[in-house]
Amino acid sequence: MAKGEWKRSGTDDLQLSGRSDCEVFDDGTNTFFWRAHTLTVLFILTCALVYVTLLEETPHDTAYNTKRGIVASILVFLCFGVTQAKDGPFTRPHPAYWRFWLCVSVVYELFLIFILFQTVHDGRQFMKYIDPKLGVPLPERGYGGNCLIYDPGHPTDPFHNIWDKMDGFVPAHFLGWYIKTLVIRDWWMCMIISVMFEFLEYSLEHQLPNFSECWWDHWIMDVLVCNGLGIYCGMKTLGWLSMKPYQWQGLWNIPTYKGKIKRIAFQFTPYNWVKFEWRPASSLRRWLAVLGIIFTFLLAELNTFYLKFVLWMPPEHYLVLLRLVFFVNVGGVSMREIYDFMDDPKFHKKLGQQAWIVTTITVTEFLIVVKYDPKTIMLPIPFFITQCWILGIVLVLIWTLWRFFIHDITLRYKETRRRRQEGSSERDRAPGHTDGSNLATSGRSRLNGSMDAVRHRKP
C-alpha cells in the first residue's frame, strides 16, 4: 500500500489521507471480530426485554423501578449507538469502542442538561439517587499554610510539609499530563496549558481553597516534576508511535504464538499515525483555533474542581474519577476531529461529532457551576491579579494585530514595491529603449562624425 494510504479493517472502505506520516500495510482480513453484529445485538436485546416483561415479577418499589428503568433506557440507547452510530477517525481497538464513548457523551450531556434545569437544592439532592452519601456539604482541603520545605520546628520529620502534599493527586497529575500530551501531540501547547493553569490557580484561590498551594507545590511539584515528566514521557511515546511500522495481519494468518500475542497487544495501539502540526502563526484562522483549544482545555480543567465544589462531591469519589476516565477516552477523538477540521476544511466541511458534543459538555458544565453557586464565581478578583490578566490579554491582542494585520500589510507593500521595481527594470531592458551605455556610444559616434566633416572642409 502506498504511503499516505490507509484502510480500515472490517466493513470500512478504502480512504486516503495525504497527511499521514507513516506507511500502513493491512492484509484486509475481515474476521468475526470486525464484522457488524446488528442482528445478534437486536436478538439479545429483545430476549432481555421479553424476560423482564413475561418472566420477571416487577418489584413494588417505586425508587428501585425508577432507577432500573433509567438504566435500562440508557443501555438500550448504548446498544443502538454502538451498532448504528457513525464511525469516527479511530478504529483501534475496535470502532465499536469509540462509538460506545460517543453515546456515553450524549448520555452525559443529557444528564447535565437535566441537572441544569433543576433548582440548586433539588439538583444536589438528586445526586443521592446515584450515591446516598452525596448531597452533603463537604469542607474543601487547602494545600497552602506552612510552606517551609524544611521545617526545623518538627525535628522528628522536618520534611513533613512535602509528605503531606504527596497524596493520590501526584500520580494523577503525571498520568493526566502523559495522556494530554498524547492527545495534543505538541510540546509547546502542553507547556502553555500547564503553566497557564497554575496562573489560574493563583488567580482563583480566593474562590476555592483547594487552589491555595505553596509556591514550590505550584512550580516544582506540579509544573516541573509531575506535569513536566508526564509531558516528557508523552513526547517520547509520540516519537515511538510516529516511527514504528504499522503492519496489520489477521490473527489466524500469523503462524507463531509469539506473533499472535504481539498482534493482540498491538490491537490497542493506533491503526496509523498522523503528526499534528498546529502552526498557530501561519494564519489568523489557525491562531484563533489554537487559542480556542487552549481556552477549552483550561475551562474543562477548572470545571473538574468547580463541579465537585458546587455539587458537593468529595475529590476521591468515584464519579470524579469516572469523569476523568470519560475525558481521557473522548479527548483524543475530539482533538483529532478538530485538527482535521482545521487542517483540511475542504474535505472535513464540518466539525466532528465527538468534538461537537465534548465542546457542548464543557460549556454545560460551566453553566451548572454559574447557576449553582454564582456568589463564588462572582467573588471579586484581587486588583493586582486583574491587572496582570488585562496586561496579558492586551499583549496577545497586540501581537495578533501585528502578526496578522500590520505585518501582513507591510509584507504586501514591500512585495508590491519590489514587483514594480522589477517591472520598470524589465521595461528599460526591452527593445526600442536605450540605456545609458547606448546613449553614450551614440553620442561619441555623432561627435566623431562631426569632427571628420570639419577635417574634410579644411584646405
TrEMBL record:
Query: What Pfam families would the database entry show?
Result: PSS
What is a single cellular component term in the Gene Ontology annotation?
endoplasmic reticulum membrane
Compartments where located: Endoplasmic reticulum membrane
Q: In which pathway does it act?
A: Lipid metabolism; Phospholipid metabolism; phosphatidylserine biosynthesis
Query: Which BP terms in the Gene Ontology apply to this protein?
Result: phosphatidylserine biosynthetic process
UniProt keywords, alphabetically:
Endoplasmic reticulum, Lipid biosynthesis, Lipid metabolism, Membrane, Phospholipid biosynthesis, Phospholipid metabolism, Transferase, Transmembrane, Transmembrane helix
Spans of biased composition, class Polar residues?
435-448
Its membrane topology is listed as: Multi-pass membrane protein
Span-the-membrane segments of this chain are 32-54, 66-85, 97-117, 187-204, 216-235, 287-306, 318-335, 355-372, 384-405
Here the segments flagged for biased composition (Basic and acidic residues) are: 421-432
Say if the entry is tagged with keyword Endoplasmic reticulum: yes
> Which GO terms fall under molecular function for this chain's record?
L-serine-phosphatidylethanolamine phosphatidyltransferase activity
Note whether Lipid biosynthesis occurs among the keywords: yes
Q: Which reaction does it catalyse?
A: 1-hexadecanoyl-2-(4Z,7Z,10Z,13Z,16Z,19Z-docosahexaenoyl)-sn-glycero-3-phosphoethanolamine + L-serine = 1-hexadecanoyl-2-(4Z,7Z,10Z,13Z,16Z,19Z-docosahexaenoyl)-sn-glycero-3-phosphoserine + ethanolamine; 1-octadecanoyl-2-(9Z-octadecenoyl)-sn-glycero-3-phosphoethanolamine + L-serine = 1-octadecanoyl-2-(9Z-octadecenoyl)-sn-glycero-3-phospho-L-serine + ethanolamine; 1-(1Z-octadecenyl)-2-(4Z,7Z,10Z,13Z,16Z,19Z-docosahexaenoyl)-sn-glycero-3-phosphoethanolamine + L-serine = 1-(1Z-octadecenyl)-2-(4Z,7Z,10Z,13Z,16Z,19Z-docosahexaenoyl)-sn-glycero-3-phospho-L-serine + ethanolamine; 1-(1Z-octadecenyl)-2-(9Z-octadecenoyl)-sn-glycero-3-phosphoethanolamine + L-serine = 1-(1Z-octadecenyl)-2-(9Z-octadecenoyl)-sn-glycero-3-phospho-L-serine + ethanolamine
What residue spans carry the region label Disordered? 417-459
The enzyme's E.C. designation: 2.7.8.29
The family note in this entry says: Belongs to the phosphatidyl serine synthase family.
Tell me, what does this protein do in biology? Catalyzes a base-exchange reaction in which the polar head group of phosphatidylethanolamine (PE) is replaced by L-serine.
Please identify the protein, giving its name as recorded.
Phosphatidylserine synthase
Protein source organism = Carassius auratus (Goldfish)
List the taxonomic lineage: Eukaryota, Metazoa, Chordata, Craniata, Vertebrata
